[in-house]
Amino acid sequence: MSLVTLLPFIVLIGAMILMTRSAKKKQQAAVDMRNQMQPGSGVRTIGGMYATVKEVNEDTVLLDAGPGVDLLFAKNAIGAVLTDDEYNRIVHGIEHDLKSDIVPDDASSLTETDDAAGSAAASDETSVDLGKKDADEKPSDDEAVEAKAEEPKKTDGDSDAK
Description:
The chain is of the alpha+beta class. It has helices spanning 3-35, 84-92, 108-111, 114-122, 141-150; strands spanning 42-45, 50-56, 60-66, 69-74, 78-82. It has a domain at 3-96: SH3 type barrels (Roll), CATH 2.30.30. It is flat, with a radius of gyration of 36 Å. The model has no long low-confidence stretch (mean pLDDT 74).
């Protein structure tokens, strides 16, 4: 047999060895993660349920899923052990220490100095023109549209030229 005919088999065996090693590493990482569980840890099951670890046994975990709801799961059913911040963010909606990342809706507070903000607050007396017209001035666009709608419509038989 020549080397050319053996080369595909060698490549295939090498790929299988690499995939097996990768799968074993992932499996060992999952086992290590599950061994880190302690009572009080927040977890997510492989089914997507979030709960707090109440008790850890050799093959099982007792989870507190809510007031008066204790569930017994196999250790292998735990998909992830979460940090306290991540668990509180997901389950309780509590953002921890993110106030420095909040961007205000109005960007002017980022560019205005304290003196400018104080003078703007003091000058509340200035009026703002919102485009409203007085009643004795030219009618507004809405009024013009209403007046045109009230005019009688001409038909093909009517003629302006006499």
